[in-house]
Amino acid sequence: MALGAILIIPFAGNAQDKNFIDQPYLETNSRVDTLVVPDRIYLGIVLQESDSKGRTSVEKLENKMATELQKIGINLQEQLMLADLSSNFKDYFLRSTDVQKSKAFTLVVYDAQMAGKAIKALEGAGISNISFRGAEVSNLDELKVSMRSKAVLKAKEQAQAMVEPLGQSVGKALYISDLSTEYTPYQDRGPRVMMEMAKSDNAEPIDVPFNKVNVQAMVNVKFMIQ
Fold it and tell me: How many Cβ atoms are within 10 Å of 203's Cβ, its own excluded?
């Protein structure tokens, strides 16, 4: 996946800590960050019997849900799951002789447009209890590793830039510390807007782009000075 623009903020200084090493070295910090679009969007779906004499059973609603989601290309086995396996059916006692059942699911889709289509399809089938549960980056671990590598390379570039004017060069790395690799949790009102539009009377849901999330890495490296 292509990465977005990378911001480099250097911090550098010379150090002569004899307790650490007994030769000249240069210490530098480097931070890189990038913005990525979430590619896993989670929707909560609650099926509940209607409170009327001609109520639609949860089982029938589940079949309708499955049919509508398959129509738009959803893989039910991979993208739809029970939200709470320990309470498949939750009973709500309306009267002493009446019980209302509900069943909760989590649907995962891979872009905002498909999320809008799913909401629209379910609304058309009479299923309206749908909520946005969250969004994440699926390859976050791999991205963090990549960002650490970029931060180390930038640290070396910074070190070289500082010693070259002195007629010296950077040697091997003597010490590397991963100071932080951070991921900003997804926060955006875009999904709410998307859901409102999908529930409107528009023929097709509008593709509202999700805000990008920030992933950053910071390292501290000590290089030998030659």
Answer: 5
Residue 162, classed as helix, strand or coil, is helix
CB atoms within 10 A of CB 32: 24
Q: Where are the domains of the chain?
A: 11-37+139-186+212-225, 40-136
Tens-level pLDDT at each residue, the chain (226 residues): 434 333 333 444 454 445 556 789 999 999 999 998 889 999 999 988 765 455 678 888 899 999 999 999 999 999 999 886 444 444 444 444 455 678 899 999 998 889 889 998 998 888 888 888 888 899 989 999 999 999 999 999 999 999 999 999 999 999 999 987 777 666 655 555 555 555 555 556 556 667 788 899 999 999 999 9
CATH number of 40-136: 3.30.70
Q: Please state, in angstroms and rounded to a whole number, the distance separating the CA atoms of residues 46 and 50.
A: 12
Report how far apart, in Å, the C-alpha atoms of 79 and of each of 66, 125, 175, 180 are.
Answer: 11, 19, 44, 33
The Cα–Cα gap between 109 and 60 comes to: 23
- Please tell us whether the domain made up of 11-37+139-186+212-225 is placed in CATH 3.40.50.10800: no
Sheet of strand 25-36, all strands in order from the earlier edge strand to the far edge: 11-15, 25-36, 213-225, 170-183
